[in-house]
Amino acid sequence: MYAGFVQSDAAFPEILQKNNHLKQMKQQKDPFDRIVSKLIQSVTKEAAYVIDHLFFLEFSSDYDSKKTHLHYYHLPLYLARYFVEYPGKLDYVHYDYREQFIQDVLRGVDPARVIYQYLRDCIENGRSHIGPYIAVRERSRIIQLKRGGKEMEKTDKRVYALYRCGQEIRKALEQAGGAKTADRYSASPSKKISAIAYRLLNAAKAGDRKSFLDTLFRLHMSADQPISPLFLNALHERDLDFPAVANAFIAGLLSQEGQGEQEEVVS
């Protein structure tokens, strides 16, 4: 059983209209980020006070497992701005992780933990998808909006550059490895890349900057690739925080060649 309700300081007819819209979208099984985006798109800038007082309540119950969940979310202005300015940008993220991502954001919790789970899923199941990169980029956008929304385009470019660094390293490793020799068989590049990605992900999740950078430097040396100055943000976090740096690079490392062009569709 599921029940949902959206409350605001708008007039009652508008509240009723929004709840009818909510019911319709839930019946269509729209993801929660799309629901929020559609509900606030009609609100004008002059009604910022109304946006700031949007409140979502969700109730779900599973009789078989005897579990009941109650979720309630307040929508701050910076998140309202995100849903208005970047609608549909999370569509490339797997549905389960997209829902967890949005729930964390609405609770005021850093969604980095969801991205860690998403990346681990990609490693364990051999998936190559642009979704983790999109999740990293949207997290960085939300953080920037929370800080006032300055340098949004520069932040996007930095995240994308780190993602491309990961793709370039993967390409170099694939070109250099995976060949049989007269004496032994070398493990396939994909297995080596997965092992490296695991190591980097564990360091990122633990907040171990030293271990992450040590692996990163060795990786670039073995691939004979220059190291981008952007990785210094893993230490000083001036332009990006450590999770953004680490996860953007790992997402690129796990992606296949050609997915950089797909970014043009979802930017």
What attributes does this structure have?
single chain; 267 residues; mainly alpha; 13 helices; 3 strands; 62% helix; elongated
The total count of helices amounts to 13
N-end to C-end Cα span: 37 Å
Largest sheet, order of strands side by side?
1-2-3
Mean pLDDT: 84
Which structural class fits the helix and strand makeup? mainly alpha
Q: How much helical structure, as a percent, in the residues?
A: 55-70%
Helix and strand succession? EHHHEEHHHHHHHHHH
Low-pLDDT sequence parts: 179-183
Q: What is the general shape?
A: elongated
Beta-strand residue percentage: 5-15%
Radius of gyration: 21 Å
Main sheet: strands, sense, barrel = 3 strands, antiparallel
> How many E strands?
3
Polypeptide structure, described:
With 267 residues, the chain is mostly helical. It has a 3-stranded antiparallel β-sheet with strand order 1-2-3. The chain has helices at residues 12-27, 32-41, 48-52, 77-85, 95-107, 112-124, 131-146, 152-176, 189-206, 209-223, 233-236, 242-254, 259-266; strands spanning 2-7, 55-62, 67-74. It is built from 13 helices and 3 strands; from the N terminus they run E-H-H-H-E-E-H-H-H-H-H-H-H-H-H-H. Strand 2 (55-62) and strand 3 form a beta hairpin.
